[in-house]
Amino acid sequence: MTSGEYRVESESETLFEVLLVEDNPADARLTREAFAETRYGSRLSVVSDGYEALRFLRRIEPYALAPRPDLILLDLNMPRLDGCGLLAQIKRDEDLKRIPVIMLTTSAADSDVLRCYNLHVNSYVPKPPDLERFLEVVAKLKYFWFEVVRLPPK
Length: 154
What we know:
With 154 residues, the protein is α/β, with parallel strands linked by helices.
């Protein structure tokens, strides 16, 4: 996926909009597959870095018709604008700060966890290394955020 492109994966009855910000095509594909495995009426939009995510969230071309996400899944280490930089901008923006942000990343370093929570991430989830566990984690995330939690109105 190149800069300026995004992809939308949809399910028949979309109840929840999710934005995945992930620069690794393999991890993005894996997350799309994990979303397809669980049925909570969600649509997953994917952008490749924090800069593109800001354009998506602010509906700047080519994202003028982008849906407002109910939830953001954010990778930590990305080019141009990393996860912490994007998180800081989201949480400072009056229009965006109520969107829950889940840091979904390979880093389990205490310093990264602390830095993200200091920037008001809603949760920090290390990516499991194996496919089965990753699918399980995504299913639990979707269950928690779409079945247990009441999300703020758009």
